[in-house]
Amino acid sequence: MESQIIEIGVTDWQVAEPNPAWIAGLEAGKVLYFPQLPFELLPEEKVLLKPEIRDPKVRNISLDASGHLKGAVGDTAAQLALALMIGRFREQAQSLVYSLLPKYQGALRLAPTSYRPTRVETRAQSWRADDRRLHVDAFPSRPNYGERILRVFSNINPDGVPRVWRVGEPFETVARKFVPRAKPYVPWQAKVLKALHVTKSLRSEYDHLMLQLHDGMKGDMAYQESAGQVTMPFAAGSVWVCFSDQASHAVMSGQYMLEQTLHLPAEKQYDPAASPLAILSKLTGRQLV
Question: Which of 39, 72, 120, 173 could form a disulfide with 169 if both were Cys (CB 3.0 to 4.6 A apart)?
Fold first, then answer.
């Protein structure tokens, strides 16, 4: 299997010039890995690296686009320090993305920035929510009509512990395996889900198929073991970037990570034909949104 990881020796969050091979790789579902790009914590931020700073009722601490912090416990000073740390990461992540992918400027929509202080191995979850199984990201309640999910991750573990992923097969290989098994899309069911507020808007056939891929992959234990994949330890002090709706991945272990999500309309890619929407439309022979 061709490597799904592109290692890049950049040491600055502002890339000097765009690299067509990196752009094409990213849009083909590969992971861009920057092993020498640490997010530098300020001395006073070291105390924020403790799992009990997260409210146990939520999965992650997050900072929304308007600067509102959610999911943290602690006094006002601790909350402010968290908001400043996460906000600084957001600025650096955006700087990296805009210098890597200048064509995306003006097209990207900012999603909340998250801080994940919990050890991955200790999370107890249902099989459908268990991210230790290979999957592509899809949202059950938030249909996105083919909009891309671009993510920037930074391992800020103070003890040098890597964040270990499994990275799987190219998206089209996955889709060819699981689309034939997918339950058919039923428009009236999508209307019922919207009427009952299970979904925030009408689920498109694209969103239905992406959920079928997500659940099909996670539910097939033979596939989890036999699929082409590599185990990838992302080092402490490193950054990696991928389209998580396209890169088949599983998060196996690690603690203390910052993550920025950005959304991009598929038609704003350098190569829109590389998007999951275009690939699934080609495989089904139908317009899916």
Answer: 173
The DSSP symbol for 58 reads S
Distance of alpha carbon 240 from alpha carbon 151, whole angstroms: 8
Cα–Cα distances (Å) from 93 to 84, 115, 173, in that order, read 14, 13, 30
- 11 within 8 A of 38, measured Cβ to Cβ: no
Residue type, 24: A
Q: Are strands 69-70 and 61-63 parallel, antiparallel or unpaired?
A: antiparallel
- CA proximity to 72, closest of 36, 114, 30, 100: 114
Backbone angles phi, psi at 10, to 5 degrees: -65, 140
Nearest to 263, CA basis, from 139, 123, 150, 185: 150
On average, the pLDDT of the chain sits at 96
For residue range 108-155, list pLDDT tens digits in order.
999 999 999 999 987 767 888 889 999 999 999 999 999 999 999 999
Output the pTM of the full model: 0.96
What are 150's two structure tokens?
A: 């671009």
